[in-house]
Amino acid sequence: MLEELNMFTVVVEQSSMNKASAALNLSQPALSRKIAKLEQELGALLFRRVGKRLELTRIGQLTYDYAVEARQQHLRFLKLLAEYKHAGRATFTIGASLTTLQTSLPDLIQALTARSPELDIKAITGKTHEIVTLIRDRKADLGIVASRIEDAQLTCVPLFDDHLVLVLPRNHFIMEKNAPVITDLNGLPMILFSKGTWYRILTDELFEKYRLLPDVRMEIDSFEAILRLLHTCRAATLLPKSYLRPQMLADNDLQVVPIRELEESKRTTSLIYDQSDGFNPAVRRWIEEVAAQYKPV
Q1: What Gene3D superfamilies does the record tag this protein with (predicted)?
Q2: Which of 62, 71, 225, 239 is most exposed, with the fewest beta carbons within 10 Å of its own?
Q3: Is the pLDDT of residue 297 over 50?
């Protein structure tokens, strides 16, 4: 049936049996027999004639949509096959929001390459809704976003909950208090992440909820740069807990200050992918292993 479906799509796209037969290098009677055979297998008419024009029936339109999707799937399969044949390698594209690019993505890519060294991994960055669109449009194979995604077309695998933490230079004046509270952020010199990401939106929502007006000295789109500037500017910052490592804090002479209200600022980091798309089996096993690794005991 695949051959007949391909010929059917050409007829639809050419809007003419004559033009389609020329494009296929096939006689018109032979093409008509192929279309008749397809209609017989489906048990329904695909076209109706309106004057000299061919017009799709409702079943014809459904068949065309399916045939186009099947053709695209076949082309993707041939591309994947060619990549495997070329030195046994395949390209796998991961979409990540700017925040997850700096927090979760490096560890996850390291785990994936350890399992499947034959994969050439590419990364695309964007806002969460842009990553979702990339997965839907199949311009990326897998997405890592700081959110739970409700989408019938996509599979969402929650990994872990993250929240904001207050990071300060050691011996910062705020530590003179016995137990810093959320209101201590009011008027506090701070370096914040640039606007536009879930992380900055979460930060601004927190400020609004508790009516805080910090003294924002800088806005930067690099966590590393923020950490390096805190001592110079004698400033504080709010960062996702998942980003911070003990060695990172020690290298920059920083400390994390626990504040209860910040622990309530939770977001879930998830893996998303198109459940209708064929996956490299090694990647699917990796997803299962990663999900099991983060699953609460």
Answers
A1: 3.40.190.290, Winged helix-like DNA-binding domain superfamily/Winged helix DNA-binding domain (1.10.10.10)
A2: 225
A3: no
